[in-house]
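Action item from last meeting closed. Structure (293 res):
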């Protein structure tokens, strides 16, 4: 998606700021995590298809058919990812849920030697250790902060499960080649919506009686703006921004989430957790930077 008045870096930054507000929006949607994940996937898929039509990006059906098994699996993983991520907000603060969710790169780092046969450098391992240490402070495992009004530990577990499935999606997506990013994302969103619809129907969770007018409006916002539109902006700028810059900018998302949690929602955060926030972000960003030669 093109926003000509912004530079490619500006467009990417805009999409990441939008992603960072997901927790804030989720706070005001009175709906279970499974039906909400279904609606987000369905609306996101529809929005992505519209963006493809506007941008004259075709579906390559034969290529999609050949990659159907991996696309179906990635759609299932995406549905699980969002269900656990949304559920985390029901049990802990936006800041803690988002930062624990952003442990996904650590899971990817652990998978790299096994899946891609990559050699892990000492610097990466040190940064991962710093990030994990920060996560322990943020989660309250160290210092008992989780009992101080910031939620229960199950929120941390849900967020980490979401991070695990998020990392699995990225690892799997690296093996899916020959598709346009918009096309691949639309297929993944569509299959995620299908899986979630079937599961919610069989388990009786497709219930919207708790929804309000505000809730429906925010759900549409989540599906159209935070998914279809934001993904469109992100993918539109991805090829025009250096990979190193992309990696560093990706942490704008959790920073925005932490700021909204503390200053807008006024959710509690302890000094130890604040130190953990700095360690998590510092470890992640340092791990993405290339050493100077």
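Sequence:
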């Amino acid at each position: 998606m093109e926003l000509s008045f912004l530079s490619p870096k500006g467009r990417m930054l805009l999409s990441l700021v939008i992603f960072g507000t997901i927790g804030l929006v989720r706070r005001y949607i009175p709906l279970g995590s499974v039906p909400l994940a279904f609606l987000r996937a369905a609306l996101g898929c529809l929005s992505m298809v519209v963006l493809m039509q506007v941008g004259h990006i075709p579906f390559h059906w034969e290529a999609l058919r050949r990659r159907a098994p991996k696309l179906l699996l990635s759609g299932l993983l995406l549905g699980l990812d969002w269900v656990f991520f949304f559920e985390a907000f029901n049990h802990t603060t936006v800041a803690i849920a988002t930062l624990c969710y952003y442990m996904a790169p650590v899971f990817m780092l652990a998978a790299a030697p096994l899946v891609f046969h990559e050699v892990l450098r000492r610097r990466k391992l040190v940064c991962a250790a710093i990030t994990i240490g920060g996560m322990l402070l943020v989660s309250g495992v160290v210092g008992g902060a989780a009992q101080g009004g910031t939620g229960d530990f199950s929120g941390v577990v849900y967020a980490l499960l979401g991070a695990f499935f998020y990392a699995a999606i990225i690892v799997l997506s690296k093996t899916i080649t020959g598709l346009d990013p918009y096309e691949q994302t639309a297929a993944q969103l569509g299959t995620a919506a299908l899986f979630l619809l079937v599961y919610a129907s069989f388990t009786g969770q497709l219930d919207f009686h708790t929804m309000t007018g505000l809730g429906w409006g925010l759900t549409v916002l989540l599906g159209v703006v935070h998914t279809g539109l934001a993904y469109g902006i992100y993918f539109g700028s991805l090829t025009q921004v250096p990979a190193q810059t992309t990696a560093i900018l990706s942490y704008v998302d959790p920073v925005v989430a932490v700021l909204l949690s503390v200053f807008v929602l006024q959710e509690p955060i302890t000094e130890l957790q604040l130190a953990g926030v700095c360690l998590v972000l510092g470890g992640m960003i340092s791990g993405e930077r290339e050493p100077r030669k």
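Note appended to the action item: DSSP finds 14 helices and no strands in the chain.
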